[in-house]
Amino acid sequence: FGIPSDETFVITTTNRKEITEDNFSELVHDGVTLYLLQSVDQMLLLATKERIDFLPHYDTLVKSGMYEYYASEGQNPLPFALAELIDNSLSATSQNTGIRSIQIKLLFDDSQGKPAVAVIDNGSGMTSKQLNNWAVYRLSKFTRQGDFESDHSGYVRPLPVPRSLNSDISYFGVGGKQAVFFVGQSARMISKPASSQDVHELVLSKEDF
User: For the chain, what percent of residues have pLDDT higher than 90?
Assistant: First the structure.
């Protein structure tokens, strides 16, 4: 990399977890994006891009018949689809010590290229790994397996209280991706983890698929 022998540097994950001799062996799978920086908290000089490659989760096959939620006994399924999107914000803000702010905006201009539904919250934010995991169809937040940079955020399935308050709307089985593509043609997730200075963006597009 052309680094002078007298210059110090660090190698980190996209979540700014420093790679050391102790945890290097935990990088057991290919495709992990790493940063070569002068310090762990160094500002990135420009935007970085990471392409996500994944095989469909096996639940795509074994649970492909779970359409009952959208069937909804003849009712309008649009509110249920919006509820799935709000579920992400409920989960993200569940550990807030202050005000939980969740906004739903209907954008009819061209600021996003086309009319859009925007769900905005002041929650904990997601790392790039968490965004990657969110992109995997039918990879439930209750069945995800941990790895070197786990997507677990300390989420514990709550005690029985109204689902509108406990971020368990997706109990009904419809994933956020299904909700997105029921409403529109693409999804853009923009997130900044509370403990990081980096902003992560994920785009899923039916056209790209």
Answer: 24
